[in-house]
Design goal:
single chain; about 325 residues; alpha/beta; three-stranded mixed beta sheet; 12 strands; globular
Length: about 325
C-alpha cells in the first residue's frame, strides 16, 4: 500500500488557519496529516494538532539551503525549502502532499495520491496557465535557465514522490553551495518543475486529476462561498481561499491601479465579502496602488534594460542554461 503524508503549511495560527487544517485533515484519508509551522520569529506553543512539524529559518540554513530570495521573503520565494526539511525528518513516505494554508481540495488526497502512484508520477503540479513568453518571471529566470528548459508551475497543492524530494533537495543544496554562479535565484515556481524535468522525473499536471477552474494565484475565493466540498463529484482544487478580512486585504493589495480607476469589476469582487470595505479604505488602497504602479514601471524598465544588453551581446534565447559548464553543474 502506498504510504503518504499530507502537510498543511502555515505561518500563523488563528481560527481561519485552524478551519483550513480541519478541512485538509478531513480530506487526508488513510495517510498521515501534519501541520508545518515556521517558528522563526515566535513559538506557537501548544496547538490542537496531533502532528506538528516546527522549523525555523536557521534550521533550513543548517540543511545547506541558501538564504537567498529575489522578492518577498525567504519562504514566499522558496516554499519548497519546507518540503526538503520535512523529508529529512520523515524520509520513509512514498508520497508527500504539500498544501498551502489557503488551498482547499474538493475530494480526497488519498484519491489524488493513489492516482499519482498509478501513473508512477514523481511530481504533480499545475503549469502556469498563461504562455511562458508572457509570464512576468520568465525573462528574469532566463539569467539562470535556458529558454527550452525553463518551466513554471503553481505549487500551492503539490505532490512529490520520495525520489523527487531527494533529487530536488540535493539540487537546491548544490546550487546553494555554488553561490554567485547562480545569477538569479530561482523561485520554487520555476525551480521545482524545471529541475524535475532536467532530472528526468515524471511530472504530471494537476489538471489531469481534477477541476482547476478555481485554482490560480489570483483572484481569491471567499471562504464562506466555498461549495459543500463533500458533495462534489471527483476532485477539485481551489486556491486561494481566504476568510473575510484576508479576502478584502488581498483584493485591495493585489488589484491594479487601473482597475481602481475603472471600478466596476473591483466593486463586484468586494461585494462578495461578508463585510465589504468602506469607500475610504478603497480610496487609500487605490492611492497605494498608484505608488506601486510607478515601482512596477521602474522594475519593467530594468527588465527591458536586461533584454537590451542581452541583445547587444548576441544573447541566444535558445542557448543552454548559464548554470551549465560542459558536463559540470554547480
Amino acid at each position: 500500500m502506498t504510504s503518504y503524508a499530507v502537510v498543511l503549511k502555515a505561518f500563523a495560527w488563528d481560527p481561519f488557519v485552524e478551519r483550513q487544517a480541519a478541512r485538509s485533515r478531513d480530506a487526508t484519508g488513510a495517510g498521515d496529516f501534519f501541520v508545518s509551522l515556521d517558528e522563526t520569529t515566535a513559538s506557537f506553543g501548544t496547538l490542537p494538532i496531533d502532528n506538528l512539524f516546527r522549523f525555523s529559518r536557521s534550521s533550513l540554513e543548517a540543511l545547506g539551503l541558501a538564504s537567498r530570495f529575489e522578492e518577498g521573503s525567504l519562504l514566499w520565494w522558496n516554499p519548497d525549502y519546507t518540503h526538503y526539511a520535512f523529508n529529512r525528518s520523515y524520509p520513509d513516505y512514498d508520497y508527500y502532499v504539500f498544501v498551502e494554508y489557503d488551498a482547499v481540495i474538493a475530494g480526497s488526497y488519498e484519491t489524488l495520491v493513489q492516482q499519482a502512484a498509478a501513473h508512477d508520477a514523481d511530481l504533480v503540479v499545475l503549469p502556469i496557465k498563461q504562455p511562458l513568453a508572457q509570464w512576468r518571471w520568465t525573462l528574469l529566470h532566463r539569467q539562470t535557465y535556458g529558454a527550452r528548459e525553463l518551466r513554471g508551475s503553481l505549487v500551492c497543492i503539490s505532490v512529490f514522490s520520495r525520489r523527487a524530494l531527494e533529487v530536488l533537495g540535493r539540487r537546491r543544496r548544490e546550487m546553494s553551495q555554488s553561490g554567485s554562479r547562480v545569477p538569479f535565484w530561482p523561485s520554487a515556481e520555476v525551480f521545482v518543475p524545471t529541475e524535475a524535468a532536467r532530472a528526468g522525473l515524471t511530472t504530471l499536471s494537476l489538471s489531469n486529476f481534477g477541476d482547476v477552474a478555481l485554482y490560480d494565484a489570483f483572484p481569491p475565493v471567499p471562504e464562506y462561498r466555498l461549495p459543500p466540498l463533500d458533495g462534489l463529484n471527483g476532485l477539485g482544487f481551489i486556491h486561494p481561499v481566504l476568510d473575510d478580512d484576508r479576502y478584502v486585504a488581498s483584493m485591495l493589495r493585489s488589484t491594479r491601479f487601473v482597475d481602481f480607476v475603472r471600478g466596476k469589476a473591483l466593486r463586484r469582487s468586494l461585494a462578495l465579502a461578508a463585510s465589504p470595505p468602506s469607500s475610504l479604505q478603497v480610496a487609500r488602497a487605490g492611492a497605494s496602488r498608484l505608488r506601486d504602479a510607478f515601482d512596477v514601471r521602474r522594475r519593467h524598465a530594468a527588465v527591458r534594460l536586461f533584454a537590451k544588453l542581452a541583445d547587444e551581446r548576441s544573447f541566444d534565447p535558445a542557448a543552454p542554461s548559464p548554470l551549465d559548464n560542459g558536463d559540470a553543474r554547480p
